[in-house]
C-alpha cells in the first residue's frame, strides 16, 4: 500500500483575531490541495488554545470543501463523547456530499476535565462513552436506523467502511480500535514517558495489527511534527520559542526544561529536508504507517513560512520517503 501524505492543523494563531487565524488555516488547505497532499486534518478543541482552537471542525471543513478540489478532509480528532452521534453523522454526511465524497472521520475520547464538565459529561466514562457513540455513528453512516425505528440520516451517506479512524494512547486502545474495524491514528508524541516516542508507540501499532481481523487492509496514520526550512538554524528560529513555551506549560513535562529537551519531548523533526529525511528513516513507526500526517503544532510559524514548509514537505521530504503526489483528476 502506497504512503499517503497529510497535514494537520490545530487552527492556532498568535493573537485575538480569530477570523484571521481561521482564514490562514483555510489557506493551508488550499496550498496543500495544490501541492498534492492526500488529506488535510483538523483537531477539535473546545477550550481555547493560545491564539485559537477549533470547536466546530465540520463547519470549518465544509468551507474547506468549497475552496479545494481533491484533498480529502478529516478530523484528528472529533471528541466523540461530547457530540450527539446522530447529529454528528448528519454533519459528516453533509460535508461528504458537498465535497464529492472526500471526508475521513477521526474520533477519540479527548480527556479535558473542563471540556467534559462544560458539556455535562463524566470524564471518567470517556472510553465507555466513546465506544457507545462510535457504535451509533457507524450505524448512522452505514445508512442504518438510529434513534427511533424508521429514522435514517439525511443526506444518505456514502460508503464509510474504510474511512473511520480512532485516536489511541495505549496498546490496549489500539487493539480495541482494531476490533472495531477502525483505522488507527497515532499522536505526534507519547506524553508521560521518558523513552523516545517511537519506541513507546511501535508496540501500540504492533498490537493493532495483530488484533486486526477485518478483510480490508488496515490504515495507520502517523502524526509527526515535521518542519523543514533552509537549515536547522533557520527552522529553530521559526519554531523553537513556540515549542519551548508550550513544553513549559504542558502537563506532565518536567519543569525548567530547555529548548532541545522541549523539541525532543514533542518528537520533532526539523531542519534541512535532507536532515529530516535521514531522521524519519530511523523512525520506528513509519515503516508500518500507511499515512504520514505532518503538523507544526505547537509551533505557530508565520503564514509564509508555514506554506513554504508545506512546499518542502511535498517536494523534498515526502517523495524521499516513497510518497508520490496525486495526479490531476485522481
UniProtKB/TrEMBL annotation:
What Pfam families does the annotation carry?
Answer: Bac_luciferase (PF00296)
Name the source's superkingdom: Bacteria
GO molecular function, a single term: oxidoreductase activity, acting on paired donors, with incorporation or reduction of molecular oxygen
Query: Which InterPro entries does the record associate with it?
Result: Bact_Lucif_Oxidored, Luciferase-like_dom, Luciferase-like_sf
- Which residue intervals define the domain Luciferase-like in the entry? 7-251
Any one GO cellular component localisation term in the record: cytosol
Give the residues annotated as coiled coil.
Answer: none
Specify the protein name: Luciferase
Amino acid at each position: 500500500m502506497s504512503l499517503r501524505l497529510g497535514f494537520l492543523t490545530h487552527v492556532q494563531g498568535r493573537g485575538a483575531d480569530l477570523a484571521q487565524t481561521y482564514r490562514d488555516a483555510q489557506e493551508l488547505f488550499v496550498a496543500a490541495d495544490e501541492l498534492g497532499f492526500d488529506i488535510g486534518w483538523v483537531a477539535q478543541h473546545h477550550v481555547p488554545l493560545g491564539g485559537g482552537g477549533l470547536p466546530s471542525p465540520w463547519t470549518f471543513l465544509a468551507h474547506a470543501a468549497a475552496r479545494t478540489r481533491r484533498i480529502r478532509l478529516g478530523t484528528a480528532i472529533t471528541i466523540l463523547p461530547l457530540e450527539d452521534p446522530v447529529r454528528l453523522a448528519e454533519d459528516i454526511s453533509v460535508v461528504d456530499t458537498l465535497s464529492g465524497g472526500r471526508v475521513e472521520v477521526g474520533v477519540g475520547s479527548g480527556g479535558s476535565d473542563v471540556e467534559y464538565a462544560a458539556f455535562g459529561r463524566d470524564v471518567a466514562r470517556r472510553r465507555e462513552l466513546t465506544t457507545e457513540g462510535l457504535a451509533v455513528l457507524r450505524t448512522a453512516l452505514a445508512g442504518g436506523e438510529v434513534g427511533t425505528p424508521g429514522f435514517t440520516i439525511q443526506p444518505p451517506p456514502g460508503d464509510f467502511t474504510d474511512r473511520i479512524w480512532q485516536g489511541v494512547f495505549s496498546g490496549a486502545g489500539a487493539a480495541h480500535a482494531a476490533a472495531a474495524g477502525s483505522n488507527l491514528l497515532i499522536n505526534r508524541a507519547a506524553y508521560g514517558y521518558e523513552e523516545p516516542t517511537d519506541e513507546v508507540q511501535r508496540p501500540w501499532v504492533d498490537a493493532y495489527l495483530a488484533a486486526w481481523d477485518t478483510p480490508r487492509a488496515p490504515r495507520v496514520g502517523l502524526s509527526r511534527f515535521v518542519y523543514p526550512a533552509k537549515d536547522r538554524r533557520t527552522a529553530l528560529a521559526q519554531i523553537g520559542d513556540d515549542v519551548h513555551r508550550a513544553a513549559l506549560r504542558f502537563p506532565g513535562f518536567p519543569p525548567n526544561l530547555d529548548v532541545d529537551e522541549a523539541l525532543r519531548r514533542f518528537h520533532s523533526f526539523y531542519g534541512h529536508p535532507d536532515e529530516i529525511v535521514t531522521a524519519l528513516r530511523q523512525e520506528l513507526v513509519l515503516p508500518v504507517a500507511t499515512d504520514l500526517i505532518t503538523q507544526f503544532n505547537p509551533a505557530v510559524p508565520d503564514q509564509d513560512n508555514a506554506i513554504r514548509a508545506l512546499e518542502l514537505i511535498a517536494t523534498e521530504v515526502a517523495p524521499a520517503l516513497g510518497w508520490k503526489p496525486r495526479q490531476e483528476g485522481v
